[in-house]
TrEMBL record:
Organism: Microtetraspora malaysiensis
Gene3D superfamilies: 3.30.70.260
Pfam families documented for this protein: MgtC, MgtC_SapB_C
Keyword Transmembrane attributed: yes
Stretches assigned to the MgtC-like C-terminal domain: 150-227
The keyword Cell membrane is assigned to this record: yes
Organism taxonomic ancestry: Bacteria, Bacillati, Actinomycetota, Actinomycetes, Streptosporangiales
Keyword set, alphabetical order: Cell membrane, Membrane, Transmembrane, Transmembrane helix
Protein name (record): MgtC/SapB family protein
Length: 253
């Protein structure tokens, strides 16, 4: 017999969607593939499946449906895992979707305290685990997941190249911007040297890159600097795309 009332149905569904949205909000703020809507929908779907089994009055059905939800989320998580050369991206995203589904199942069961505890634990893992992981992997930046590749193209005087390279290494040693390598493109007929720096960033990457560009333009030997998104295997631009130019110590827009 169906003992689930409309009020209980709405309350449990709201709890599942709300907790999934909280998890997704942190992912959205981090600019991840699965953000607020995706995690909220995953939690909502898991909640609805378990609520359906509860609504039809089969006492053993919710447990079976929960096991099916786990299997279904496994297929969904596999779709967001990407292989990029020797690196694998999306593992954290897949695991987060799995956790959002678990939160939805808990919400559907009516254990709201457990649901809240589970949500807090997932958020704590993301918020506290990331800096701890970076602290452990400070010597192996390539092991850090979910970082996005960017290219920084520079043009400078040939005699200033070594100084600019050293400055670039210094500016990317703080951990927020990871330098993967520098490719020299060559010297053009005007005597300027062009090279490309391969960077890894997460979070608010444009603001950090603009700050890096502004810092590089303080050096008198630099003529042009530009950045763009890329993958780890993308070839550098054939020539610099001028986004700013420094002439006689003044940067023009």
């Amino acid at each position: 017999m169906n003992t689930l009332t409309i009020a209980e149905f709405v309350l449990r569904l709201a709890a599942g969607v709300g907790c999934g949205a909280l998890i997704g909000l942190e992912r959205q703020w981090r600019a991840r593939m699965a953000g607020l809507r995706t995690n909220a929908l995953v939690a909502a779907g898991a909640t609805l499946f378990v609520l359906y089994s509860d609504a039809v009055g089969d006492s053993g059905s919710p447990t079976r449906v929960a096991s099916y939800v786990v299997s279904g989320i496994g297929f969904l998580g596999a779709g967001v895992i990407l292989r990029d050369g020797f690196n694998v991206r999306g593992l954290n995203t897949a695991a987060t979707l799995w956790c959002s589904a678990a939160v939805g199942v808990l919400a559907a069961s009516g254990h709201f305290v457990f649901t809240g505890i589970a949500t807090i634990v997932v958020l704590a893992v993301h918020l506290l685990g990331r800096p701890l992981g970076r602290l452990i992997d400070h010597d192996t930046p390539g092991a850090v997941e979910d970082l996005h590749p960017y290219l920084l193209n520079l043009t400078c005087l040939a005699e200033a190249e070594q100084h600019i390279r050293a400055l670039l290494v210094q500016c990317t040693s703080g951990g927020e911007v990871i330098l993967r390598g520098i490719d020299s493109i060559g010297t053009d007929p005007t005597g300027d040297t062009r090279f490309t720096a391969h960077l890894l960033l997460d979070g608010d990457a444009p603001a950090r890159l603009e700050h890096l560009v502004a810092r590089m333009f303080l050096e008198p030997g630099i003529h042009t600097v530009e950045w763009r998104t890329a993958d780890d295997h993308a070839a550098p631009l054939p020539g610099p795309v001028v986004t700013a130019r420094q002439e006689e110590g003044v940067a023009a827009p």
